[in-house]
Write a structure and sequence with these properties.
By secondary structure, the protein is an alpha/beta fold. Helices cover 39% and strands 18% of the residues. The strands form 4 sheets. A 6-stranded mixed sheet has the order 1-5-4-2-3-6, sandwiched between helices. A 6-stranded antiparallel sheet has the order 16-21-20-19-18-17. It has a 5-stranded mixed sheet with strand order 8-7-9-10-11, sandwiched between helices. The longest helix has 26 residues, at 614-639. The radius of gyration is 25 Å and the shape is globular.
Length: 640
């Protein structure tokens, strides 16, 4: 670095630049760079953009069980980073910084993962690499494939953008040792991420997580020396054949395919500029649906130009599809997020209006239908029901617990994130005696089901409130494509009964009790925001409430401190989440997001089954949760 760096020292002295930022800048610029790094930092420093420098350098982006996620385009784009510009109005280069998503951090991540696998496994490791439509996703994916090959691994690289769950499936199908996806799911356009999967197709958890994380975080630089050509691996493209294999397996999620025969429904689908249309559209057409898409949103575009947020749980993201559904008289709207692991829907209700369903409502309907139908088909019986299991997260609707309990099947709650659901599935797979199966992954659905019901646990359904669902264990992540298949069958089932999905939902409420969940988030960006989130989360742990909104607290579960065991007796890993149960039956959970700059609140309310006036019950519970949120908001102000 040249003498211009004195401005950095002066900024530290004046309190404008964090000491941690100053150190990280020095370390970062000391490594091998593309020539853009120093020019970018210098430009920001000379312009006095200390907030931007702190956001980029206040920490080193740490690799965790969720991989990496951060900004790949800065709030302030420097002239050096803009360069000649890239496709779809993006800069030529990703933003430089130790806390940013760039080749420096992506390089550290893939190299650390490779080091761990090489130390644990014999032979040449095999990686599956996929990506979504975000800015720099393809660049990062090709870079990772190159690093894999040059460090002695075979890299199976998808030829274009693909849904995240397809990478999970391909890992299992190809018997790969690991896999990665370059995606930031439904985050804003300026973000990107690196998700890591182990050989079971699930995101990394223990006993491998600590080892991989340690290897990645030990690397200060992305520099490496390629192996001699004779020791290098190959880059193998994945395309149409892999798509067809995945589509065939996904169709096995249908329990009663005959329901779809002769019941062609008109649906509007949007991939919100993401990967979903690659599989969903041909799949729906194959199932007999009349499929319309939103032309403006069909194009794969990392800017997500037609929406504020490419998240199907937000009404605004589905508005164009809903407008088209009204115009064309469609029966339903389906939307998936950019990497197609989440699905949101709107359905035509009894009044003929398009009504959005929440992730909890969608998941509860699917869980109810699959449990009911599996009993009717004889897949689950009185003698085997104890081995059937529904897996959900703690912050997902307790309506699903009620459905499982009343039907006499098991239910187990996990921490937020499908990696924990996947870990349960791996546990159940491993419980099958080795002498009973040669290759579990090669079994037909019927063969697999029989083995699980006899020796282990048969997975009926899994889901989380944030619009993620899974219907079988051949995949180990939430799957928007599979969710579409399960939802299509639900639509056909309602049609066979001559009713609407909203009518079915009311039937479920009548039998199992009305449940309502409301999700809220408080956003706090950058270094300052991260500090506020940490302070707020710590305050709940150090000083949990004793009374909220006029109701005494009956129980507090601090997942960061308490020893908590799930329904199967397994200890739940420590996590920054607090669950508060009130004496009046309401409850709420609070946790910092692991992927976005926000702290999340989950509010739960219910009324008992058999309420004479369901409309009154709904209004009462909603009012109680709105009052609860007002009380929580007021308490937040006092805590921060």
């Amino acid at each position: 670095m040249n003498d211009w760096t004195h401005v950095l020292d002066e900024a530290v002295a004046s309190g404008s630049l964090l000491e941690s930022s100053r150190k990280n800048i020095a370390d970062y610029l000391g490594g091998a760079r593309d020539g853009v790094a120093e020019a970018a930092v210098k430009e920001l420093a000379e312009a006095g953009e200390w907030g931007e420098l702190n956001d980029r350098f206040y920490k080193t982006l740490e690799f965790g069980t969720g991989g990496l996620r951060g900004r790949t385009i800065g709030k302030v784009v420097t002239t050096a980073e803009q360069g000649e510009g890239g496709p779809l109005d993006r800069p030529e280069h990703p933003c430089h910084g130790t806390a940013s998503m760039n080749f420096h951090n992506v390089g550290r991540a893939i190299q650390g993962f490779i080091r761990y696998l090489k130390a644990k496994k014999d032979g040449k490791p095999k990686f599956v690499i996929g990506h979504d439509t975000r800015h720099f996703s393809r660049d990062f994916a090709e870079y990772c494939a190159k690093v894999c090959a040059e460090l002695g691994c075979d890299a199976y690289l998808f030829e274009g953008p693909r849904a995240t769950p397809q990478i999970s499936f391909a890992i299992r199908d190809l018997n790969a040792d690991g896999g990665i996806v370059l995606t930031a799911s439904h985050n804003p356009p300026h973000d990107n991420g690196f998700k890591a999967y182990f050989d079971d197709g699930g995101q990394i958890v223990e006993p491998h997580a600590t080892g991989i994380i340690t290897e990645v975080n030990a690397l200060a630089s992305a520099d490496y020396e390629a192996l001699p050509e004779s020791e290098q691996g190959a880059i193998i493209p994945l395309g149409v054949e892999a798509d067809e294999t995945y589509m065939e397996k996904t169709q096995t999620l249908l329990l009663q395919p005959e329901l779809l025969e002769g019941r062609s429904a008109k649906v509007v689908y949007t991939n919100i500029h993401g990967t979903g249309g690659h599989i969903v559209v041909p799949l729906l057409k194959k199932l007999g649906f009349d499929v319309l898409t939103v032309p403006e949103q069909d194009v794969m575009d990392g800017r997500f130009p037609t929406v504020k947020s490419p998240n199907p749980e937000n009404a605004e993201a589905l508005q164009m599809a809903m407008d088209l559904a009204v115009k064309e008289g469609a029966d339903a709207v389906i939307g998936t997020d950019p990497d197609c692991d989440r699905m949101g829907v709107a359905v035509r209700n009894a009044a003929g209006e398009m009504e959005l369903l929440t992730g909890n409502q969608i998941g509860s309907l699917m869980a109810w239908y699959r449990v009911k139908t599996m009993f009717e088909m004889g897949w689950i019986t009185e003698s085997t029901r104890a081995r059937a299991i529904l897996v959900k997260t703690y912050v997902t609707s307790p309506l699903q617990d009620a459905i499982a309990h009343k039907n006499g099947i098991g239910v187990v709650n996990t921490l937020t994130g499908f990696k924990w659901i996947a870990a349960k599935l791996q546990k159940y797979e491993s419980a099958i005696p080795a002498d009973k199966v040669d290759d579990y992954r090669a079994l037909t659905p019927e063969e697999s089901r029989k083995l699980r019901l006899e020796y282990s646990k048969f997975f009926v359904f899994g889901g989380e409130e944030s619009y993620g669902y899974m219907g079988d264990d051949f995949i180990r992540d939430k799957d928007g494509n599979g969710a579409v298949v399960m939802f299509a069958e639900l639509v056909a089932y309602a049609a066979s009964k001559g009713c609407k999905l909203t009518d079915l939902l009311d039937e479920v409420y009548a039998e199992y009790g009305y449940h309502l969940e409301i999700g809220k988030s408080l956003y706090m960006e950058g270094a300052e925001g991260a500090a506020k989130i940490a302070k707020l989360a710590a305050s709940y742990s150090d000083n949990p409430p004793s009374e909220v909104d006029g109701s005494k607290v009956a129980k507090v579960r601090d997942f960061a401190k308490d020893a908590i065991f799930d329904e199967e007796g397994d200890e739940v890993p420590k996590a920054k989440m607090l669950f508060v149960d009130l004496e009046d039956g309401r409850s709420f959970a609070v946790r910092p997001s692991g992927t976005e700059p926000k702290i999340k609140y989950y509010l739960f309310g219910k009324d008992e089954a058999g309420a004479d006036d369901l409309a009154a019950s709904k209004a009462k519970v909603r009012a109680s949760l709105e009052s609860l949120w007002a009380a929580i908001e007021a308490d937040v102000e006092a805590r921060v």
